[in-house]
Amino acid sequence: MPTPTITASVTIAGETVPRVELTPVAVDLLRNLWEEHGPLMFHQSGGCCDGSSPMLFMAGEFITSDQDVRLGQFDLAPADEPSQPLDFWMSAEQFSYWSHTFLTVDVVPGRGSGFSAEAPRGVRFLIRSELMTVITPFAAAAVTDRVGAAAAAPPAAAAAPS
Amino acid sequence: MTVYAAPGTPGSKVTFKSRYENWIGGEWVAPVKGQYFEDITPVTGKPFAEVARGTAEDIDLALDAAHKAAPAWGKTSPAERAAVLNKIADIIDANVEMLAVAETWDNGKAVRETINADIPLAADHFRYFASAIRAQDGDHAQLDGDTVSYQFHEPLGVVGQIIPWNFPILMAVWKLAPALAAGNAVVLKPAEQTPVSILVLMELIGDILPPGVVNIVNGFGLEAGKPLASSNRIRKIAFTGETTTGRLILQYASANIIPSTVELGGKSPNIFFSDVAQEKDAFYDKAQEGFVLFAFNQGEVCTAPSRALLQKPIYDSFLADAVIRAKKIIQGNPLDTDTQMGAQASNDQLEKILSYIDIGTKEGAILALGGERADLGGDLTGGYYVQPTIFEGHNKMRLFQEEIFGPVLAVTSFIDYDDAISIANDTIYGLGAGVWSRNGNVAYRAGRDIQAGRVWVNNYHAYPAGAAFGGYKSSGIGRENNKLALGHYQQTKNLLVSYSENKLGFF
């Protein structure tokens, strides 16, 4: 049976829609790393060289606090096997700018990143993003107010690359 | 125009070894576990050398060597240490082209930058700290007629340093120069994306330093970085990187009760007030260049001016001129001195940049230039190249809030001074910023009101030794590039001396 996509459970109080998922290749890699290291956790990074990537640590290695938000919890275990919970965390201040996007954890070939556990395998976790369908991040007017008259007109937008 | 021969081909300025071991105790030492990893050049995407895959065992060997060297090195006079630092600077100066080609091959950046910026700045940085340590005085206070308080600077002992990949040699030197000037021994871990160029430098300067004063262990963060950062045998840990690893390092430092300086990136605003376009003169030309500097070093700079804020009245015209200018950026072989933008440092970096271009489009940002991977053909097809990219949008978009670390600029407008400062400070970071105005009063006030450690006024991307560099807010703790950095590598010893013959009279 092919590896499934895994969607995280909802862990933010008052919310009903998941915020994070794993691609099948991410699931395979995480199951493999779990065998090597035991329980794991993600903390989404921001800034600089290796930033804006999800960092994978041994569960509890990174001390979270009230300054962090738990976006969801994955269960890596195949059906009918004991649960393998993996939390996905982000700093609260970063979440305030990310909250309107749905995050998919994918894997790409790469070299190194902070102390993240997958790096020695020659791969990196990568975030792909979609807009949350249930949240309107900013009114369309807010964007057009901030760009030039020419660019704000829809036809010009499509013609831009050159 | 010069095109430097690629390493591994006839006439190359640098000949890499096929395999690099760790530099420990003044000699090359094979990794204890015997494992190596391939170093890939982003120029072609192909491996060019094997590098030691260090582990906790190698970090321990390096710490042994550092602890052996630290006491004697810490007791050398400032003049002796300054002489060593000046000698290192002379050797760097005498080998600029060789080091520049090595750095370009390891990192992917254009050789005109390594020749004119990275490597000469590294030499100058050693000279600055050679001077700074000689000019540094202790302190004393006569507390009363017979009591004097003396304050001495003492080295911390053995310190750990973890280096980023965007300026592999220069960022190592930013940390090494103050640490060595202050009399510390160092265990340094380069970034695994760029592990070799610093070793090429060590081949040149290794015999100038006493064995064990500088030790370099390569490897992955989890396997080599963590054992270094969490060791109870270092007296300080310095790190440049991102927020999550920065917090983890501060956490390890707290467990050992040692200081840590961390530089954690930014999302720097570059503000252009209307009067910039008052005349189409040399200053306007300079400001236009200042806008296009988002593409400097392929955007892989913690202080990249990645948010351009244009005042409404000049928004359309200034942006139109700047887009024309950005279109003229020459992308090509990084070893060609005419090339202005080279390769991104790694494949995952390339993928991350493309993922941000994707979310920018989804969020409704408007593409004004670029937006795709660049295929430069020939051997460079496998390299990691991205077109210079300009988006227009709104400061709440993720494009405006996250450090993409690529040649991707987010542009928005502001109405007046207060709006400009409000947008500029609406970010979790505070590392760099730019202010452009012909009105000195406005420029000064804006410079003071922006919450960032470095505000360039009517210039950008200059990094002279002597100008303090470091972050506000989530951009980190500590200052480099200035004599203040000596304090991050020194302990304060207070001798409180009584010159009185008389007892206190308490007992």
From TrEMBL, chain A:
Top-level taxon in the UniProt lineage: Bacteria
InterPro entries the record matches: DUF779 (IPR008497)
Pfam families in the record: DUF779 (PF05610)
Name of this protein: DUF779 domain-containing protein
UniProt organism field: Cryobacterium gelidum
Automatic annotation (TrEMBL), chain B:
One Pfam short name: Aldedh
Source domain of life: Bacteria
SUPFAM superfamilies assigned to the protein according to its UniProt record, in alphabetical order: ALDH-like
Presence of the UniProt keyword Transit peptide in the record: no
GO molecular function, a single term: oxidoreductase activity, acting on the aldehyde or oxo group of donors, NAD or NADP as acceptor
Alphabetized InterPro entries for the sequence: Ald_DH/histidinol_DH, Ald_DH_C, Ald_DH_CS_CYS, Ald_DH_CS_GLU, Ald_DH_N, Aldehyde_DH_dom
Entry keyword set: Oxidoreductase
Record: active site: E263
Record carries keyword tRNA-binding: no
Span of domain Aldehyde dehydrogenase: 28-494
Family: Belongs to the aldehyde dehydrogenase family.
The protein, known as: Aldehyde dehydrogenase
Organism of derivation: Cryobacterium gelidum
